[in-house]
Amino acid sequence: MLKQNLKKNYDLKDHIFKFLSSLNYIEKIDIVKAGFINVVFKKDFLISKLIDLFSNNEQYGFNNIGNGKKINIEFVSANPTGPIHVAHMRGAVLGDVLASILESSGFKVTREYYVNDAGSQIRVMGQSLYKRYQQLFDNQVVLTPNEYPGEYLKNIAKIIYDQDGDKWLKTKNEIEKFKYFEIFAVKNLVARIKEDLSLININFDIFTFESEIVVNKFINKVFTLLKEKNLLYEGVLDKPMNEEESDWEPRKQLLYRSTNFGDDVDRPFQKANGEWTYFANDAAYHYEKYSRGYDQLINIWGADHIGYISRMKSIVEIISNKKNYLDIQICQMVHLRKNGKLLKISKR
Fold first, then answer.
1. Of 3, 283, 296, 305, which has fewest CB within 10 angstroms of its CB?
2. How far from 77 is each of 45, 175, 250, CA to CA, in Å?
């Protein structure tokens, strides 16, 4: 609302009524007690718009507001640890529709999917796939509770079995073996994700892989930038509220001063063991996107990422030296129920 709306005795209803009445295509305005505003358009205005619609056909509504500015929209970006499912579709449709609207308004839009193919979840998936492969040889191996039990891994394991036989049972190099299963799973699942999204006519211009961001060491550039601005320091965080006392131990980590930007606590940037955190790699990814020369970045996130917004926007502001260079749009989570009970749709 305008600041003047906060002035004492300001009549907002009267302001709205006068503004709408000044529009030459409005026939009648009725503001009811419940707060609803009923607006009646003049018939000749509606007829002229209908004529315009039929005259311009498929070009109706197109404009050049964007004037060729480049926008990157990243959406879906579900982890490649399993197929996408209906819970991902709300963000998929929102991102694709927004991209289409911006394209019809003169912007040059890149639709992007970020593939998180690095880190502990991918290692666990590779181990899970290898166990499914072992089971095809009647090896009595059991998946642990933190591994991926989905039937889709059985299908992928069968592909490896058909093409490689027992090659990987004989391979002594554990690093080579598990890396193969990780890469094979990601490649297969990303192909399936592309295929599933194409069924609803959603296609991406770019699939960017976290592993490529790591290999190209974009994190080093972000690290240098944050150090120069004194936004990193070594510290120990308090025990998280949801952690058991016996499961937690204080450890010194490299922390990002996210409280400078409205966050409730400073956030780990580098783990005690020297590994970069997910947040750090995500910052490196946004640095890489910025370096491509976009005028604006837009991310579509699920509501479970709301707490992540302030730290990510602050990092991108530092990288770009522009306020609101990163726009984050949130869509609500999808919940499925059967017989009145909430269905679990997670991959583990």
1. 3
2. 43, 27, 32
pLDDT reported for residue 1: 46
Amino acid symbol at 233: Y
DSSP assignment of 30-84 equals EE-TTS-EEEEE-HHHHHHHHHHHHHHGGGTT---TTTT-EEEEE-----TTS--
Of 153, 121, 108, give the one whose Cα is nearest residue 134: 153
Q: Retrieve residue 211's tokens.
A: 């592993």
Angle at alpha carbon of residue 117, lines to 145 and 331, rounded to 5°? 85
Give the integer Cα–Cα distance in Å for 250 and 13: 57
Measured over the CA atoms of residue 22, residue 25, residue 28 and residue 33, the dihedral's sign is: negative
Residues 105 and 60 sit within 8 Å (Cβ to Cβ): no
How is residue 166 annotated by DSSP?
T
Whole-angstrom Cα distance, residue 148 to residue 82? Answer: 9
CA distance 111 to 212: 18
Do 120 and 189 contact (CB within 8 A), yes or no? no
* Residue 283 backbone phi and psi in degrees, to 5: -60, -40
Q: How confident is the model at residue 222 (pLDDT cuts 50, 70, 90)?
A: very high
How is residue 72 written in tokens? 């990157």
Q: For 132-148, what is each residue's pLDDT tens digit?
A: 999 999 999 999 999 99
pLDDT digits (tens, 9 = 90+) for 289-321: 999 999 999 999 999 899 899 999 999 999 999
Return the higher-pLDDT residue of 238 and 80: 80
Give pLDDT, residue 35.
79
Question: What per-residue confidence (pLDDT) applies to 335?
Answer: 81
107's tokens: 């912007």
Across the range 11-39, mean pLDDT stands at 89
